[in-house]
Design brief:
Two copies of one chain form a homodimer. By secondary structure, chain A is mainly alpha-helical. Chain A folds into two domains: 69 residues, Arc Repressor Mutant, subunit A; 140 residues, Tetracycline Repressor, domain 2, CATH 1.10.357. Chain A is built from eleven helices and no strands. In chain A, helix 6 runs parallel beside helix 9 and helix 7 packs across helix 9. The longest helix of chain A has 34 residues. The first copy, chain A, is globular, with a radius of gyration of 22 Å. At the A-B interface, helix 2, helix 7, helix 8, helix 9 and helix 10 of A face helix 2, helix 7, helix 8, helix 9 and helix 10 of B. The structure holds a DNA duplex.
DNA sequence: GTCTATAGACGGATAGAC
DNA sequence: GTCTATCCGTCTATAGAC
């Protein structure tokens, strides 16, 4: 924790100190980001308990001690991965707001979630793993960040239903359905590949599946444009 | 492995040996079943790597050495849990065959899968966890047992589509949707509870959700009775 | 078939030189 | 900020008495 010295000592007008601080800050930033990315992969492959800091450090090309210099405990690193994932999830969630037309809004959201599953499947797996094992390390993210967003979407869906633009769906169950099916394509890819008899899902096949999922979801909620 | 002696030695007409063998076999059977049940819970809570044989033995009320007497390695026990889960999954799968009416057949299957999620959520979590981490310990179950069943259902769905009893869905994507949403209620219960602001899902609420899910799935595939 | 004790490997975290 | 060496706890699995 030698870096706290720079903050504790008043060096505001100390010419050489400021660039130095910036350079060190940059090193820290880039090393941390690299470690978080590598950690996401190892946590996805092995789970929190199964992942070792040695594996993560090795994948990052750093000695294990450096990892513990930036993230004192394995749990600190794990938390950072989860927070990073939430930010990405939240950006995809924004898609829901863009239109008052349920076909557009819901279709767009499903496409955004499918794209996220395709772009960052390892992250989705870390998230799923954490929830499956009780979500003890992300209760705060769920109740303080995800829940308010979900509640606001429930209101929008209810208004669509009351205006006759949607079948009388239970909004939460419907949202869970969207999450379940879109994340399934990231989390369960090993099963999907085994059952399709392929080694991996091609980009083209994924795009086809995306449109099929959109069609299923739109029919499920009976959406029609206003 | 002292038990193999009983099989190796010809003692067919040895009066006291036969009941003894049966008694011992019964002890083995009941201890193994108990261990498998306890293991399922611990694997669900902690994952394969996070679960220790000591935890499983403690939950079973046995010394750790006894566990290794019945299941030489942790992986042997884990495999048994997975095989046991598949048997249950397969029984629920039978529901699909009972009717040529797609509304009945699909609705019944969704209800059976939801009931399985409610009855054995820990098992579902072990399954999900295994798939998420690459399914390396159940490739054989997927390709030799699940895949043939899925392929046979695809044929049935295609026939419904061609007879105009179903919207033109892609059968695999549709089946994956059913699996994703029904298993979501077992695997992601921690998230669902956090977002509903409840400690657990009541039996009554689960029944309501089940019917809502059935309605969503039936609308999604556009099923109608012949 | 049951149980205590322990071997042997591995993992998280830290000390301290550079 | 980097890295080697190491402490100490935990884990799987087994030896061997009962």
């Amino acid at each position: 924790m030698t870096h706290d010295d720079a903050l504790a000592t008043p060096t505001e007008n100390d010419e050489p100190a400021a660039p130095m601080r910036r350079r060190k800050a940059h090193i820290r930033e880039s090393n941390e980001a690299h470690l978080v990315a590598c950690a996401e992969a190892v946590f996805a492959e092995r789970g929190l308990a199964g992942a070792s800091t040695a594996m993560i450090a090795e994948r990052a090309g750093l000695p294990k001690a450096n990892l513990h210099y930036y993230f004192p405990t394995k749990l600190d690193l794990y938390r950072r991965v989860l927070e990073d994932l939430f930010e990405d999830w939240y950006r995809a969630a924004d898609t829901f707001e863009c239109s008052d037309d349920p076909v557009e809004a819901i279709g767009g959201y499903v496409r955004a979630k499918m794209a996220l599953s395709q772009r960052r499947p390892l992250g989705s797996k870390v998230w799923a793993n954490e929830i499956i094992h009780g979500a003890e390390h992300m209760q705060d993210i769920l109740t303080q960040r995800v829940k308010p967003w979900l509640d606001s979407r429930v209101v929008v869906i209810e208004s669509w239903v009351s205006r006759g633009l949607l079948a009388p769906v239970e909004p939460q169950t419907f949202m869970f359905m969207i999450w379940a099916i879109t994340q399934h394509y990231a989390d369960f890819d090993a099963q999907i590949c085994a059952l399709r008899g392929e080694r991996e899902i091609s980009r083209r096949a994924f795009d086809d599946v995306t449109e099929e999922v959109v069609a299923l979801v739109i029919r499920a909620c009976g959406a029609r444009s206003p």
